[in-house]
């Protein structure tokens, strides 16, 4: 998905501007997907698979292939090669740890288009893609800040890498924009998908008084913990409300289908080019799930107003002034961080309880 080496994005991401490599129009698209988890995880892989199914609605897209629970590293190269040998002409590798394998296989197969999710390496037939999930994270923080009664909000987080840290910070800034007294308590699980570990982390936060939980995990275990303990919960990846019908408030979610459809169209038309895509709410790659009826109408209206401002570009969740946990100003007043600064974020903002350590 996205491992600690994502720190390299600070210097390399988003600096590629495309090239003159010409893609031959493909009359038929045979797409292959490499997944790091099971399609039934209800989270990261499930969301990608929903996008795959949306793309298949195009008349010229053949039934696609997906291979789930593929380990990152050398094993992924074997799987990617297998898709090439079976005639796939558009291959999506949906985890950060597949980056080097994707590049290596692409070098030997210039007639195949590869799209790698969350990485930073490109080639003439390899592009990258990801979403500005910090935008709906900020909005979900507003919901949490309005709904907490104890002013203790728990956050079950996978790994202390910039992507996850950025999400925690955006969420916390949303919380504090409406409730400066609230704090966000972070527990690291060191896993993307381990329901047992995630459930234990969620319970530990509920034990210390958190009455709203948020998560950067792939399993619905955090949702289930909140449901069992009478707390509220903010989901992630997909709309998981069925796992916590009484606890669910909303969720920052992915809409991969729009992007996958667009990329298939480009390969079909011969207009595809290698680029690094980092799209947000404006392009509908990321969004906020429908609110639960438990979210008051006035809170929904406020969040919807902020969402429109983000889409219009008049609101950026990380516009300064912003201080870190120590009180040091890390983003000056009037400054909006560059993409490089956002992609390399390695500090917590004020309002977060927790440390950035493994």
Furnish the topology, listing elements before pairings.
Elements: H1 9-12, E1 31-34, H2 44-55, E2 65-67, H3 74-85, E3 90-93, H4 99-107, E4 113-117, E5 126-131, H5 134-147, E6 152-157, H6 162-178, E7 183-188, H7 195-207, E8 212-216, H8 221-229, E9 232-234, E10 248-250, E11 252-254, H9 256-269, E12 276-279, E13 286-288, H10 297-312, E14 322-323, E15 329-331, H11 339-343, E16 352-353
Parallel strand pairs: 1-2, 1-3, 3-4, 4-5, 5-12, 6-7, 6-8, 7-16, 8-9, 9-10
Antiparallel strand pairs: 11-13, 14-15
List keywords for this structure.
single chain, 358 residues, alpha/beta, 6-stranded parallel beta sheet, 16 strands, 35% helix, 17% strand, globular
Folded structure, characterized:
This protein has 358 residues and is of the alpha/beta class. The protein is 35% helix and 17% strand. It is built from eleven helices and 16 strands. It has helices at residues 9-12, 44-55, 74-85, 99-107, 134-147, 162-178, 195-207, 221-229, 256-269, 297-312, 339-343; strands at residues 31-34, 65-67, 90-93, 113-117, 126-131, 152-157, 183-188, 212-216, 232-234, 248-250, 252-254, 276-279, 286-288, 322-323, 329-331, 352-353. A six-stranded parallel beta sheet has the order 2-1-3-4-5-12, with helices on one face. The chain has a six-stranded parallel beta sheet with strand order 10-9-8-6-7-16, with helices on both faces. Helix 5 crosses helix 6 (162-178) and helix 5 (134-147) packs antiparallel against helix 10. The two termini are 17 Å apart.
